[in-house]
Fold each of these.
Amino acid sequence: MSDRKPLIAGNWKMNLDHQQGIALVQKLAWTLKDVNHDYDKVEVAVLPPFTDLRSVQTLIDADKLQFVIGAQDLSKFDSGAYTGEVSAQFLNKLDVKYVLVGHSERRTLHNEDGDVIQAKVAAAFRNNLIPVICVGETLEELEQQGAAAVPIQQLEKALEGHKEIGEFVVAYEPVWAIGTGKVATAEQAAEVAKKLRSSISELVSDEVAQVTRILYGGSVKSANVAGFLASEEVDGVLVGGASLDVGEFTGICRFQKHVSL
Ligand code: PGA
């Protein structure tokens, strides 16, 4: 591992209402407490649906839990007549630290193109949220262009034209591995992460490339997580399905012990 602090982020997607969300966070806190999880060594983030955020934040505050909160999306605007949108300013008020931008489900199911993603990254920077910029290729793109080409193009576009670049995280999630049970090999993930890091170094600077965390995502489970994180290049994981199962997610948070509960 490098000296970048690993980030384990659980993207609940559109699952768990606020009561179920509270129950899961409580159980997760107890389970990680039982195994003496060291949050200073491995950061743990939960990314609930918008309607759960206030409840989860209140619980974290009241019980002094050490989880951090992420949101799954944000508006590119800060306020105004944008029915149904959620502003980064509101997220900020709820102590949200991270926000996913450019998840493949948003790109494909909600038609978010590179311009929208770039504007959302800008909204995150403006409001002191850390965007987790998701990039990844489809199976067809993998076959035609190899694994790294599309993720690099997507990252370039997301980082282009900002007045100021704040802290960000990159999540490499091959589209063909999301929710499918098919995973990239640890070598594939490490190779793409390495190329993404060099492109950050070209696009922004060497210093930023050295401190930026690059995660892998796509069918991560407690049984395969250690392989991904064995590489110096991969600084954490973005977990979908397995983040809804406390035992699995705890096993993932404890990747350093190679334990699955
Ligand atoms: P998965 O989802 O772990 O269920 O494959 C990952 C993601 O979409 O972030």
Amino acid sequence: MAEDQLSTFVSLCRRRGFLFGGSELYGGLSSIWDYGPLGAKMKKRIKDIWWDEYVEKREDIVGLDSSIIMHEDVFRASGHLEGFNDVLVDCPKCKRRFRIDKIEKFGTNLYRCPDCKTEIDTRQQKPRTFNLMFKTNMSAIEETPVYGYLRPETAQGIFVNFMNVLNTTHKKIPFGIAQIGKAFRNEVTTGSFIFRMKEFEQMEIEYFVRPEEAMSAYEHWVKNRLQFYLEHMGIEESNLRLREHGPDELAHYAKACTDIEFRFPFGWSELEGVAHRADFDLREHGRVSKKDLSYFDSVKEERFVPNVIEPSSGVDRTFFAVLCNAYRKEEVKGRPRVYLKLKDTLAPFRAAVFPLLKKEPQLVELAKNIFYDIKKSMPAVYDDTASIGKLYRRQDEIGTPFCITVDMESLSDRKVTVRDRDSMAQERVEIDRVEEYLSERRK
Ligand code: ATP
């Protein structure tokens, strides 16, 4: 999708009920979004597919659902208290605040405000360090606060439960723990729709391996995760690429990291990071908690701290990428047509049913009966609130693969018109064969 189509795309998402601005009724909150009826359905599909693929289908990965608020020491051990910071600077003229690493620099101390283009001299405008974590007081008494933090990534919930999971599941290394959940970062660079939010969702796996097997496991996971986007999310190969981090970009403990990037309307950006984190996390949690988080290999009679490979994906960025990838705009008989070429496993509905004339009770009854039947086996929607042309346009814009129209002839020939979203081809299909017809043409 081209950059100039982004605002039309965002308005489609709002108009059709994929996303709404957070607390919009009261003027909204920056970088907070709510998923509407269709967005909630599609987001759940993405999470279900991921969970099914990694937790349900595999024997070597188990699931977890850990809490969002966590102990301060968790983040002392993980390094987030010390190091999860952005360095910010204020523009002296327009008073807006920016991440210093994201704005233009010229000369030794001079930066330029991206908005009003004023020079920012860091000898006068001192940059300030700002921790991205949301801190919250968990004490009932204000004078004696007890602080907890909203997790900035789901991963820490996995590390602190490593021993609990190991002891209750009796898994042997290599094995993984997978989790889907909310994470919170008080991001300063905002905008770009749902790409960077303060409240977002992640799908993360921590895969624990023997140190000597870590590099090959890392390489495996990079390939596996790329394949997931191609196969299960229907993202085209030309919209995805791998970007390996150079040594200057790697966290000090990480051995390797590859970003899976998507061609967003504003350019190539990270969709997921796959990192080889060595033994950093378990070692540090072991040190700060003073608990032994090592693993005993009973075959080799050897104790060691496992290495970990972390494929860390954003649900919202995946959602955004899937929609961008599916967005199509074309001209049909001199008029623009917009449709979403979504996989049917991701589309909010797999079929829509309409009566051609809503004033004909027999048609409405037949259409509703067909709808109730279809709905037993797939997500479907019934609509009779507009003319047929508008109903088709509505379903195209939300990516419904097939529309089924019931007309006067249907009453006598027991056939309906099935229209294909992508080709717009229409075919008469016997009512009794509709489900079979749709399942033979899965997208
Ligand atoms: P970026 O460099 O874009 O800020 P990151 O490297 O900080 O991302 P990670 O900490 O690796 O991101 O988080 C893993 C994944 O979580 C990212 O690839 C992204 O999909 C998602 N994610 C991270 N921060 C946000 C955010 N603020 N809003 C939405 N998704 C996010």
Amino acid sequence: MSVNKIEKTFALTTPLYYVNDLPHIGSAYTTMAADVVARFHRLKGSSVLLITGTDEHGQKIQRTAQSKGQPPQNFSDQMSAGFMSLWELLNIQHDRFIRTTDERHQAIVEEFFQRVWETGDIYLGQQKGWYCVSCEEFKEERELLSGHRCPIHTNKEVEWRDEQNYFFRLSKYQTQLQALYQEFPDFIQPESRRNEVLNFVNQGLQDFSISRVNLEWGFPIPVDPKHTIYVWFDALLGYVTALLEPEETPTLENALSKWWPINLHLIGKDILRFHAVYWPAMLMSAGLPMPNQVFGHGFLTKDGQKMGKSLGNTLDPITLVKCYGADAVRYYFLKEIEFGKDGDFNESRFINVLNADLANDLGNLLNRTLNMVKKYCAGNVPPVTNEDIPKDHPLKAIGLRLGEQVKDAYETLVFSQACEAILLLVQASNKFIDEQAPWTLYKQGQQQALEQVLYAVLESVRLAAYLLSPVIPNISSDIYQQLGFGIDFNNQVQTSIAAPFTIHSSWGILTNQNKFGEPHPIFKRIEQPKNG
Ligand code: MSP
């Protein structure tokens, strides 16, 4: 069922964000993580397609636009532009930005609908139930909070619906879905989410409605234009439309020719069912291969509640980036929150982590070591080579294992572990330099020992910078430049050629052909707000 691509390509998606409001840090979270994955695969030399975009149809958007007195298209244009500019601020290198109001998308949705229609998986029926407009999803009565409130959008009441809709025969795919989960245990990750889906599917699947009446904002059902295609049916197919080359005719065949199947759908846990149950069933019905993996991360919470546009308890990512820089924001969320689990945001913790890791451990280490090189070695790379340093040297011993360890962590999306493992090398380097006291070695005239210490520390900082580059590309580039490598990690084509993963992820490549740049701080210490 799943096709493993032999070519080294990697296609991944973020969800397509609703444009009912400007992005908040929760939406930015998935996108930052996706960018890190994309950068990591590019670093390894794969050709990568990172897809993101906006989900613009449906009742939620129509109503929000109406409440602002704007036509939905104008409103979507403004909001979608807000997402694009935030991605730029956060240094996200997406390859595609799909908007579901894109004209070409309609052709893809219609062709897909037609395939499923011809399979006989769509029929007209009566839909009765409680609908959460913020989720754009029907809820079971037992899931609701008191006062008929949605469990996710706890300040919103669900609405009763009793209308004729077209249904998709999800129930028909129960056994096939179970076989998919069984055959590919990694299809849904992490494990806790997989179990959630297995429980849900094992309880028995019900068909779901894929059309709405009394809704104009969306594509009409080709066989019955009084009905509008359900926003989720339309949105999931955005992943397919996004695969089209810019000028390509919008057919499924064109869209699926190069990058399909998608390697990874990164999503938040609230939209797991759509991606891990509905989406594969829709693809089965259309006779298409399955994506390789759906990963559902946790929520960013504030005071324990999901941060969200509907709840209005969000944190503005623009302020955060403007205040602290893109690398700082990316680093904090990826290092401090275990991907897959929920995590609370707290500004004073945010500042402490950045000061401790980036300003002190990494930044000061580089700065003071380069200054010692200036003072004790006339600013040149110490004439030491990897071979001069034994394998059991305290830093080399860590460095030799680190590349593989961090690669595994990035590949399995445990970003916090990747960052922590790298920081351990940085911390060991700080300890090493304090213990070895190069200033004393200098006074004692032990030049060779001194040079070995400085070399080992700088090489460790280099390795740390390389391995952290998917997370903090600007800081890593700065470090690499100070160490005399003309590498900009934001230019990934150049990086994959000039700093290939197989070589740069191992310890001991610094040579005295490098010409060090002028030392300068890579991350300025942040002051805690006085009343913070
Ligand atoms: N439009 C749908 C997705 C369609 S994909 C074909 C949607 N959009 S959304 O804007 O509401 O949410 C997009 C993503 O942001 C989801 O993965 C959701 O989990 C994530 N987040 C929204 N709030 C979040 C937090 N507070 N924390 C972490 N992620 C959160 O659903």
Amino acid sequence: MSFISPAEWKASQEKALNALNTLDAKSGKGNDFLGWIRLPESITPEEISSIQAAARQLTEDAEIIVVIGIGGSYLGAKAVIEALSHSFAAWLPERRHLPVVFAGQNIGEDYLGELLEVLTARTSACIVISKSGTTTEPAIAFRIIKKHLEEKYGKAAAKSRIVAVTDRSRGALHTLAAQEGYRTFVIPDDVGGRFSVLTPVGLLPVAAAGFDIAALVSGAANMAKITAEKSLNNPAVNYAAVRNALYNKGKKIEILVNYHPKMHYLTEWWKQLYGESEGKEHKGIFPAGVDFTGDLHSMGQYLQEGERSLFETAVSVGNENNRLEIPFDEQDLDQLNFIAGKRISECNKMAELGTLLAHVDGGVPVIRIHIPQLDAYAVGGLLYFFEKACGISGYMLGVNPFDQPGVEAYKKNMFALLGKPGYESSGLKEIIDRLDAHTN
Ligand code: PA5
């Protein structure tokens, strides 16, 4: 709080409460994309059961599940599965959860080629996710995986190994799924990609990996109640208020910090949520991420003494699931006996507190978010917390947090370069001339 004055803090909190009112009244920009707000409480036990049943059926005769999607149709599931998985699952003597691998989040020829090598040797099934149903990256990956499944199992049997998650009535994936007779789940019209982790977009892959989606949704539902409160106790109001107050003081970069290796992809999900929601009209905090303590040995110098245009948001995890103490060593050649008998998590916590203080002393404000442990309930709460704060924060900034017009620019050029019908007017020759001018 030493980085902003009491008056600035009060004004920012008031602005955040107003933004919360605008969200609730559905009177702000992009208000036809607010379905995510009541999503956790509106998911019925029957819907959860139907997702779980589809996941069970899909995983019955598969050693690997391939989930195809990009952006909001990828990062939520990836983040939750990474957060809940054993770090060395592939090397455990007994399988605890079905391996889930992702495709369609890049256009990597090596990536897809190597994936096919694995799928040739193992049995597999596929969840293909695209709200628009027309996104190039997942469409390319699905064409490859569909062909593989049909060649390996035959067209009829391949069908039962594919589930599509897409729009209710529009898009190429919807048409393809209807024509081929795939089982489908619908992404609600009023939920945008990066806010869709609690729809079948996130829930089906997480269930297929064998994790507790009921607990995930229940954690989110509890957080929905907490963050609905029209008061200054509301943590989403306070997070949005403090990050905007810091932004207005010239802190243009927010770094999400974790001290738990399983949280790397939660940071990636958060980066998309805030980057795509707020980076508009030449405004918005730039979202970045680091994994501590590892990145203290690469980014620590900059954070301590570089440009003072950044602030950190540290997500602190209370309890670890394992218990491991530092052993005593007679010789003490590494001079670690002063911490012998202490838990690893205690050392990690002291690193966290020491870093927090050092960075604040170095001129980097630190926001601290505490979650009790990394389980499905807490992760569900964290996801919803960030979504709600993002909606509030985007309105405080004055942008539409629920669209992404800027994502189209690269696609237009790429389609013209690839000769997609309908993009001739984008001027292939002009694009090539301009590329030449930039690259020569
Ligand atoms: O948040 C968004 O809307 C985007 O990141 C989309 O999720 C992403 O572009 C993928 O879109 P789609 O699900 O239509 O394939």
